[in-house]
Structure formats: C-alpha cells, structure tokens
Write a structure and sequence with these properties.
This protein is α+β, with helices and mostly antiparallel strands. About 20% of the residues lie in helices and about 25% in strands. It is built from two helices and seven strands; from the N terminus they run αβαββββββ. It has a three-stranded antiparallel sheet with strand order 1-4-3, with no helix packed on it. Strands 2-5 form a two-stranded antiparallel ribbon.
Length: about 90
C-alpha cells in the first residue's frame, strides 16, 4: 500500500461513523462526558437523527441506564448529532 492509498483509507475510516444507513431497527449508544463519566440522561435525550439535508427524524431516544440509550433507526441515510459538553466552555 502506498502513501496515497493509506491516506484515502484513513480518511474513509474517519468519515464512516458520521453517516450511516439502516433498514429500520434500533441503535444502542453509549456516551461519556469529558471527565469519562457516563453521560447524563439530559445529554442522552439530545441525541438526534437527521437526514442528509439536516432535517430531524421523529425518533426519541430511550434512556436505558447510565450513559446508555437506544433510538429507532430510519430506513434511509442518517447522521447522528448530540449536545456535547466541552471542558471549560459549556455545551455545543
């Protein structure tokens, strides 16, 4: 593998988690705050699935435990968004 192929493969690997497609079903998400503690229920409730044009799907996360939630999946391409805490700043 040459340098160019390695770069293309690493960029492809980085972009995969941000866009996905599913044929229905559910997704289980585990999230942590900047200190490594499980994300709060308030933060988990901010999990949102959006289409490729930024419009949200009408799926609501169900908190299953500390830092864990499930959410239904649409039958087409989607992106995951979530409110994140940034140390010494706040939330974005």
């Amino acid at each position: 593998m040459n340098r160019r192929e390695m770069l293309i493969q690493s960029v492809a690997g980085m972009s995969t988690p941000f866009m996905a497609a599913a044929a229905g079903g559910t997704l289980t998400a585990t999230a942590f705050d900047p200190e490594g503690k499980p994300a709060s229920p308030r933060q988990l409730q901010s999990l949102l699935l959006i289409d490729t044009e930024g419009r949200p799907f009408e799926f609501v996360p169900q908190v299953k435990g500390e830092g864990v939630c499930t959410i239904g999946l649409p039958g087409r391409d989607f992106q995951l968004t979530m409110r994140l805490k940034v140390r010494d700043f706040g939330e974005v």
